[in-house]
Amino acid sequence: MSIRGTKIEIQELTHRYTPKSPVTFNSITLESPPGEALVIIGRSGCGKSTLLHILAGVLQPTEGKVLLDGHQIEKPSPRWVMMFQAPHLFPWMTVAENVGVGLTFGHWSKKEIVERVTEVINLVELQEFVDNNVQDLSGGQQQRVALARSLVMEPELLLLDEPFSALDAFTRASLQHDVRSIARRLGFNIVIVTHDIDEAVIMADRAVIMAGSPGNIVHELDVALPDPRDRHDPEVQKFRGLLMGAFQEAANV
User: Fold this and answer.
1) Element of type H or E holding 217
2) Which pLDDT tens digit goes with each residue over 1-10?
3) Does the pLDDT value for residue 253 go beyond 70?
4) What is the spatial distance between Cα 237 and Cα 51, in angstroms, rounded to a whole number?
5) How far is CA 162 from CA 92, 95, 154, in A?
6) What is the pLDDT of residues 112-163, one digit of tens each?
7) What string of H, E and C letters represents the secondary structure of 35-95?
8) Residue 216: what are its φ and ψ, rounded to 5°?
9) Integer CA distances (angstroms), 105 to 85, 100, 146, in order
10) Whole-angstrom distance, CA of residue 101 vs CA of residue 134
């Protein structure tokens, strides 16, 4: 499986949902180099999920634009895919059928679908459940199916909107580690929206903090920690303290 990352450019982005509604965020400019794991954190209402939806092409900004390798995002595309808090699987389908549904709609051959689906299911360690119905799986396993369904399209950018927030602590930690590991191995970009400081420290190459109303970027911190990251490691805990301090400072903006 071969995936490359992409350069993301967010240029002077402003958004309001209607002409009379308040500005959600104002004149945001941000760049992310190929292969970066970028985490956007902030309190509810600062516009971080709206920003992610604009990156996904499902929402158009009022002003400004988003470029991937110089090409403007104006609609959804297999090049950039989004995972949500709920996996949104087809409950009557098996794991393999759910993972391959996008390839089926894309009119891939049966042989190509089987090969690609098998490769990705092995990547997310679900090979024991390939023929299981997804409604018989645990919440964490269902999110792995959703991850595999995203990766099978070989996207350059994976967008995560708090996809692990409903999971238990052990499953959440396992998926955080695995998603970061897979992304680094395959080289694609990740943009993660979260309010979880620990998730930011474990998954990010860089953390961006949004705050205010309208929302703006108030802090950026490079997460210069080695992999794999252990949340009990003193250096990880030290950086967690720095990020928490910046987050609390942003809350007063």
Assistant:
1) strand 216-222
2) 667 789 999 9
3) no
4) 29
5) 25, 22, 21
6) 999 999 999 999 999 999 999 999 999 999 999 999 999 998 999 999 998 8
7) CCEEEEECCCCCCHHHHHHHHHCCCCCCEEEEEECCEECCCCECCEEEECCCCCCCCCCEH
8) -145, 160
9) 24, 9, 16
10) 13
